[in-house]
């Protein structure tokens, strides 16, 4: 059993659009990063400018990592659609509820397994 083709096509189109948007955002972030400018100089006389650039770089770097993670999740979801395994929980192999997929189309786990996974991760972090 798998999800109807019409539903999967809609999800796939959404994910393809999301992938394009994420790639555009990543390009934009890279162009905004002051450290990506080959003309940039590290001038100790302008320490306030240097601090601003470092702060901006750190913020953009964190945002870039988050977008890279989102892009990886989208690509994995598209891969699962192509392999006819989209919407199956990686843990229990049951189908993930369509309401969950509507909210998070890149979901890997059903709500129950996600909760167990998060509980175990929390316990292991203590």
UniProtKB/TrEMBL annotation:
Gene3D superfamilies: DksA, coiled-coil domain. A zinc finger (dksA C4-type) spans 89-113. Keywords: Metal-binding, Zinc, Zinc-finger. This is Zinc finger DksA/TraR C4-type domain-containing protein. Pfam families: zf-dskA_traR (PF01258). Residues 29-59 are annotated as: Disordered. Residues 85-117 form the Zinc finger DksA/TraR C4-type domain. It comes from the Bacteria. GO terms for molecular function: zinc ion binding.
């Amino acid at each position: 059993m798998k999800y109807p083709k019409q539903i999967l096509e809609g999800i796939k189109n959404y994910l393809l659009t999301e992938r394009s948007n994420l790639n555009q955002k990543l390009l934009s972030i890279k162009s905004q990063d002051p450290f990506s400018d080959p003309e940039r100089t590290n001038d100790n006389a302008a320490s306030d400018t240097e601090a601003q650039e470092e702060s901006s770089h750190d913020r953009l770097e964190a945002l870039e990592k988050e977008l890279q993670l989102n892009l990886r999740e989208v690509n994995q979801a598209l891969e699962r659609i192509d392999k006819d395994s989209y919407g199956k929980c990686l843990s229990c192999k049951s189908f993930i509820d369509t309401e969950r997929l509507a909210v998070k189309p890149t979901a890997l786990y059903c709500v129950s397994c996600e909760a167990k996974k998060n509980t175990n991760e929390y316990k292991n972090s203590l």
